[in-house]
Amino acid sequence: MVQAASAAVLLLAGGENALNVLQTASLVSAFPFIFVLLFMCWALIKALREEIEEEKAIKKKAS
């Protein structure tokens, strides 16, 4: 909601660089989210590796 309002204000303010400013503001506001995504990828890979190890241990006990 806030991002949409700021985009509208920037576009209404006009000027030749309004679209460039809007694009830059979008990139700057989304940049920190990249760290959240990287952490989520790392956590998923870690969990999958642990699950594989657990399955190997279960199969080893069964045989």
Describe the structure.
- This protein has 63 residues and is an all-alpha fold.
- Helix content is 87%, strand content 0%.
- The chain contains three helices and no strands.
- It has helices spanning 2-13, 18-30, 33-62.
Taken in chain order, the helices and strands follow as HHH
* Helical amount: over 70%
Number of strands: 0
Tell me the radius of gyration: 23 Å
Give the averaged pLDDT, no decimals: 88
Q: Find the structural class using helix and strand composition.
A: mainly alpha
Distance between the termini: 58 Å
Morphology: rod-shaped
**Total DSSP helices:** 3
Unreliable sequence segments: none
Largest sheet: none
Report the β-strand fraction as a percent range.
under 5%
